[in-house]
Amino acid sequence: MTGIPDPSSLRILVIGDYAHIKTRYPERTTLLRTGARPPADPGMIDGMATPGRVMRALRAAREGQYDVVVVYPHRYSAWHPRYWFRGLLATPLHPWAGLTRAFGVSLLRWRDPKVPVVAVDMGDAFGIPRSAIFLLDKAAVFLKRELPVDNWQVFYGSAHPNLPALRFRRKPRWQRRIRKLKPVVLPVLDVDPALRTAPFPDKTHDIFFIGAVEGNSSVRAAGLPELERLKALGYKIDQPTERLDRRAYLERMSHSWIAWSPEGLGWDCYRHYEAAMVQTVPLMNHPTIIRQAPMVEGVHGLYYDPEPGGLERRAVAALTDKERLCAMAIAARAHAFTHATAAAHCDYILRCAFEPAA
Known about the structure:
Blueprint: E1 12-15, H1 20-24, E2 29-33, E3 47-48, H2 51-62, E4 68-71, H3 81-90, H4 95-100, E5 117-121, H5 135-138, E6 141-144, H6 166-169, H7 172-178, E7 181-183, E8 205-208, H8 218-232, E9 237-238, H9 246-253, E10 256-260, H10 270-277, E11 281-285, E12 302-304, H11 310-318, H12 322-339, H13 342-352
Parallel strand pairs: 1-2, 1-4, 2-3, 4-5, 5-6, 6-7, 8-9, 8-10, 10-11, 11-12
Helix pairs in contact: 10-12
């Protein structure tokens, strides 16, 4: 196969617990579940990633029955007891599947499917676990949601006991591996298509924020006093304390000019794109990661310095020009619907399999 094919024409084998691609292309995708995450839709699963099932699927790929293999590595080694206990509890009538399905991705160590392999890490952590480093040799590309600005930091504490030093970074083997890394966006899975063409919403508030703070990112806790200062200055802050269902959350956020969207356990956050989809400009702390399709400062979004006073200064400056905020909100919506939907996410993953190596 030459060039970058149309993703809708591919026959796809997925080993992992994310059903995005199966949902996008149900007739052309086989999904073998590894059991690290509970299935959102059990009906999407074609089977458990037991050794026999995975080996047969990889043999089928070698024989030309699949065009690409997409794998989602675990956070921990497949030998970790958490997978055995959870597996047995989840499927007590199928103990073999419960004990072995966590090994599904690891079996690629010993089999070459003869088609492109894409590894996708959608976790919150910035590192790559030791058990997944082999995929940097097996895969055509390793997509990572939380890809540090200095890519070498993914090896901190796994391939290297500390921050990788110069001697480590100069080794050709590791330089080949680091070139496999690319960012991937965190997609919004539940999107109302009507939002694509919805009229510009009435704005009744300046800033909207809802989100967990206790036990979450220190960036959130540090920003709360600045929201209080903005409120004292006369800015209208919509900060719900009650739990909102998704529809109410999006509706309420749409009526603010700006949505404060600080990082959570990872920098990338659904709120960045959800705000954009309802034509509210996201205000984010400066990113610590490389992004697949970054929102450009002053075009699609706003960024602030996380040091004391940074949030307040950026919000005050932005709210002086509502006409510009309106233009940004419209541009942000177009950007989010182009790059941050589940369909766009899946097609990006599949195209990456066939892009020329760096």
